[in-house]
Design brief:
The structure is a homodimer. Chain A is an alpha/beta fold. The first copy, chain A, has 2 domains: 312 residues, TIM Barrel; 59 residues, no CATH class. In chain A, 49% of the residues lie in helices and 10% in strands. Chain A is built from 19 helices and 10 strands. In chain A, helix 5 links the parallel strand 4 and strand 5. The longest helix of chain A has 21 residues. Chains A and B meet through helix 6, helix 9, helix 14, helix 15 and helix 16 of A and helix 6, helix 9, helix 14, helix 15 and helix 16 of B.
Chain lengths: 424, 424
């Protein structure tokens, strides 16, 4: 039985109990949410991984993408990114490798990673095909599913599959958009469908996918191959059409006892984010929502950890459950280790701001702790409790101070101190 | 006649015409907004300054705070910050100097700065008093107003005056909050009021303030001395009580022909930002709203340009007109030149995201331009049109690329290219 089926059978598993304890919620309440498909558990595949819950009533989680590209295929660098991301507080890692020895890199990540690991199996399938000098369109159905099964067997915890990008939508999206299709997996399928005049195999043979996911208890992340890649393309017919297909696939996965969550945009103007969250929750029967950003503007390459933090915070406030980080290098190149760190921090800030906004019980306790220490001019306690103590301490200590207890911003005119003195 | 009176008299001044042209809106429409106090013009005091409009129907503006502190009083560094802030796109600069030769630093800023300059005159008054070895409470009424008049005469464009922090509120705020009073000017007044058992002089003699503002056509920025400095203190009785007092002062300023805008928080949970914007606009009869942040969490010192970008974007979307930047050094120390650059970028991203969100005509054209170039794989055009071309280009060029037209993120698997090919 999958964790989802166990919860539906009314049983509280050890995995579920651990997640309930981590989240500080009642195990029976969590079981109910899992059984309704509103929360997905992942991380059970490898003994050394933390198990996390993603969905309604839980803390908003953060994923960090790592992985080689054809131009940058140093596995050591990607492993270092994984370590930095996890130590910066990422709740999950996705390995998106497409360069070098892809299976070997994945094995090292799976062997070491202490948080759930996700993948996009179509990448391995297409990389394999193109390395044989074949076209993307030559990838056959067994190759598409072979990558899924192989990775499931190896212990991947969740997988993005773009099974909602059906032929009808692929045929009409061309020419209707400013930025076309920006999802890598979506674009592979788009080319495959166009050339072969056939239905998306992950959609056509969706039951085969469900069988694999069921056998290995892998959570499926139903990918949005048609996510908007420009503000001008947001919330369009292609995006919402795909979301509706995904909604029907959520129902089928639940009937088969497979846990699913749903991926979302992308580039979305800030004012359209609430409607996007509502639509996903309604059309996908409360499935957890995993968003990439959203990026609230297209104009800021170099700062997309900030545009994504804005969108991610608004999204989490309005119901998103899982934020995929965006690094400052997005749209420009493969991130550095530092970019990965900064991306995780931006996404964690967004997730926490969203948790306060959605009224998650206890979320603001962290803020109260930091602010109470600050109000008491207990710098050490305040900075130790902050999201990135080494960075905060380094900046605090950067410049010589007149008085030991005061920061250099106001020095002797410190309002916190004045306000305290006035109170005393 | 002040610009406000000119607009009320039905006349379109040269300053107003320039602003209308910059904003791409009809001059008569802008005149109407200025005459209703919904837009404030500032920057008329110095010939070499750009004149900007702040308020309804216009692009959201960004202010950068610079200035020495007692521990850091190098005027050259502050002038460099000013230059960097302006070249990064700040629409206004506030000189908050409290260290070194405060009037000399201000003079250099006013002589050079090509955008409107704001100040907080109480700083100069209190610095003067404490340098004479006197207590804050010894500052007399003529000293409070002397600083205002002197700075107005010198050509300061707008001034923050904490005239809404009345004795009744000062007497009750103590002890009710997690972080007390975090406004430096507010805290000076709090101490002055508590020690002297007298009303806030800027409130008691508000007409004297209006006379000065009217004579020099200085815009008043009605400061929120009781702005919340912690998530736990947001939208409390002290904050809203002060906002209501400020609302009454807005009406009095308008009767006197003086242009005013209103300052707002501070630390505010993301879900309380819309109500805060609504309250300000309602209680202050549509006056432009100038917010510091808001910061959506207290836990991220070192990243407060991001927490402020989240809050600023939501605030602008819901009606804020003017964003005061927050740098990564906020709560930790005086910002470096790089921090100032990063702070301006964060605030500009928030302002632009908010402008798209509030439906400002033409706001999303910038995004369309960047995305169309990106979709055409015209990297030079896309990066040149972005918010910080040197930074974006540096990151794009950071690593060797396999194909010249592709970034290293996906390399040969570029979705943008695949999507184009599929279309062709």
């Amino acid at each position: 039985m999958t964790e989802y089926e166990t919860a539906r059978a009314g049983k509280i598993s050890e995995a579920l109990r651990r997640v309930a304890s981590d989240e500080g919620i009642d195990a029976e309440r969590l079981r109910g949410l899992v059984s309704e498909g509103r929360v997905v558990l992942t991380g059970m595949a490898r003994k050394h991984s933390r198990i996390i819950g993603i969905g309604e009533g839980l803390k908003t989680k953060v994923n960090a993408n790592i992985g080689t590209s054809p131009d940058h295929a140093d596995p050591e660098v990607e492993l270092e990114k994984m370590r930095v991301a996890v130590s910066a507080g990422a709740d999950a890692i996705m390995d998106l490798s497409t360069g070098g020895d892809v299976p070997a890199i994945r094995k090292r990540i799976l062997d070491e990673c202490a948080v759930p690991v996700g993948t996009v199996p179509i990448y391995e399938a297409i990389v394999g095909v193109t390395r044989q000098g074949r076209e993307i369109a030559d990838c056959n159905v067994d190759e598409f599913f072979g990558a899924v099964e192989r990775q499931a067997r190896e212990g991947v915890d969740f997988m993005t599959i773009h099974c909602g990008l059906v032929k009808r939508l692929a045929d009409t999206v061309a020419g209707t958009r400013t930025a076309g299709v920006v999802s890598r997996g979506g674009c592979f399928l788009l080319q495959w469908i166009a050339k072969n005049h056939r239905e998306n195999p992950y959609y056509e043979y969706y039951d085969r996918l469900l069988d694999i996911a069921h056998e290995y208890d892998v959570a499926l992340s139903l990918g949005d191959g048609l996510r908007p890649g420009a503000i001008a393309d947001s919330t369009d017919g292609a995006q919402i059409g795909e979301l509706m297909v995904i909604g029907s696939l959520v129902e089928r996965a639940r009937r088969r006892g497979v846990a699913v969550f749903v991926e979302g945009p992308g580039h979305v103007p800030i004012n359209e984010i609430p409607a996007n969250m509502l639509l996903q929750k309604k059309l996908c029967a409360g499935a957890p929502f995993y968003v990439l950003g959203p990026l609230v503007t297209d104009v800021a390459p170099g700062y997309d950890h900030i545009t994504a933090a804005i969108g991610g915070a608004v999204a989490a406030w309005h119901g998103a459950d899982f934020l995929c980080y965006v690094t400052p290098a997005e749209h420009l190149g493969l991130p550095t280790v530092q970019d990965v760190h900064d991306g995780v921090m931006g996404a964690r800030i967004a997730a926490h701001a969203g948790d306060i906004g959605k009224g998650l019980a206890g979320a603001a306790d962290w803020d109260r702790k930091v602010s109470a220490a600050r109000a008491g001019l207990d710098w050490e306690k305040a900075l130790d409790a902050s999201i990135d103590p080494p960075k905060a301490k380094k900046m605090f200590d950067r410049s010589p101070r007149g008085g030991e207890e005061l920061c250099t911003m106001c020095g002797e005119f410190c309002a916190i101190r004045g306000s305290r003195r006035s109170r005393e």
